[in-house]
Specification:
The chain is mainly α. Helix content is 70%, strand content 0%. The chain has seven helices and no strands. The model has no long low-confidence stretch (mean pLDDT 93).
Length: 151
């Protein structure tokens, strides 16, 4: 199958890691889109080296697509390669890898997560619970204020 690298048509269906390797060698522009296709259509072991390579692209948008590919791989397979875990950890929460890390924490079983990810999952669960309690307390206080104003 041929892919239109100029406008990206069909790249989301790419399933040939060698084609992506050749595109890297040619310096194609839509490599981030292509690695999302690999994440959809190849096992993590095959897609991982290309996703990691795309995470280093100069184009900010294509680089973001590479992190999207990592999140998609976690969603679809329930696992990532050690190299992808390391790349996500290096980027950390709060940046371009935030959604990919959260997808990993959601779709990879806790027992299969590396230690850093396990700690992040627990930390996020605690901070999310505290935020929920804070909101609930705020809503309760507002309800009390409204009740007292009516009297």
């Amino acid at each position: 199958m041929t892919y239109d690298w100029a406008d990206g048509e069909g790249l989301i269906r790419i399933d040939d890691p060698a084609e992506v390797d050749a595109a890297f060698a040619r310096g194609e522009r839509r490599l981030g889109t292509a690695v999302i296709g690999l994440a959809f259509n190849c096992p993590p072991a095959e897609a991982s080296p290309r996703i990691i390579r795309a995470m280093g692209l100069a184009d900010r948008h294509q680089r973001g697509f590479a992190f999207t590919a990592a999140g998609a791989a976690a969603r679809l397979n329930g696992e990532l390669t050690p190299e992808l875990y390391a790349a996500l950890r290096a980027e950390g929460l709060g940046g371009v890898a935030d959604n990919a890390i959260r997808d990993t924490l959601t779709f990879v079983p806790f027992r299969d997560l590396p230690p850093w990810f396990k700690r992040r999952k627990v930390l996020l669960a605690v901070t999310d619970k505290l935020a929920a309690w804070r909101l609930r307390a705020g809503y309760a206080a507002e309800d009390v204020r409204r009740f007292l104003r009516r009297r």
